[in-house]
Amino acid sequence: MSVQNRFDSPRARLLLGFFVPLAIACLIYFLDYLEGPRTAFAGAVTSVGFMAAIFAGPRATAAVVILVEIGAFAYGLSSEDSGTIRQDVRLFLIALSGLAAVIYSSVRVKREDEREALTNSKLELETTSKLALFDQLTGIYNRRGVIEALEIEDRWPRSVAILDLDKLKHINDSLGHSAGDDFIQIVAQRIQRAVSAKDIVGRWGGDEFIVVLPLAEAQALKVITRVIGQVSSEPIASGNVVIEPRLSAGVSAWTRTDTLEHTLVLADAALYEAKRVGGNQALASAVNAA
């Protein structure tokens, strides 16, 4: 725990904003008493309220100020200035400084509350923004997150791969959607681990994933083939059931003159062909290959 956090705790504020100032006031009165008493405490004791105001809220500060004022009045009764104008002036000055301390405490607490509210708003906004860009099940980009990531991506050449889980419907129907969700989540994690940090990975649909690679199509096909091999190399355990992960992929080059939508059509066609010929493999776009 940091020093600031220790000072911000309720216990620390109570100690530093209430008990310590009162203890200091008592010490001032005691030292003055040892000297006469000469009632020379007024100048020093006016600072006690501000000591409280640094840490305490306005109510606690007011309580300290009131107790200090009562203490000054009671202590003044034992001095030769009791009942004189000088004693009244001392009490007035202590009360006036106490009022200023309470006002300062109120302003400080209000500003702290405003800063805390602003910080909380920023955190909520960051959380909301993250939820808007990331898939809640897998933790990778969702469709919107991929598109926003592509808006700041300017590396060429590049290729787009669409990966689709083979037989997810069979898993959902036979094992339940919970097992299907576990399957999707683990496959997403494996895909993300298998590609480079510079690649954009996202969940494009229910059982579809997209990977945008800053590579030419031939190189991207090799990477995605390796990804499929790594994903399917180890079975996935869901409860008491072991699932053999399989996925197919279509890869298409994305040129500067083509739109993402056009490139996705080509990648989807390659994905369909990969599934048609048996699945668990990646194929490049026939259009680009031609």
Summarize the structure.
The chain has 290 residues and is of the alpha+beta class. It contains twelve helices and seven strands.
Terminal residue distance? 64 Å
Q: Name the helicity range.
A: 55-70%
The counted number of beta strands is 7
Overall mean pLDDT stands at: 85
**Number of discrete helical segments:** 12
User: Strand fraction band?
Assistant: 5-15%
What is the chain-wise order of helices and strands? HHHHHHHEHHEEHEEEHEH
Query: What oligomeric state do the depicted chains represent?
Result: single chain
Main beta sheet strand tally, sense and closure: 5 strands, mixed
Overall shape: it is: rod-shaped
**Widest sheet, order of strands:** 2-3-1-6-7
Low-confidence runs? none
User: What structural category do the secondary elements indicate?
Assistant: alpha+beta
Q: What Rg is obtained from the alpha carbons, in whole angstroms?
A: 36 Å
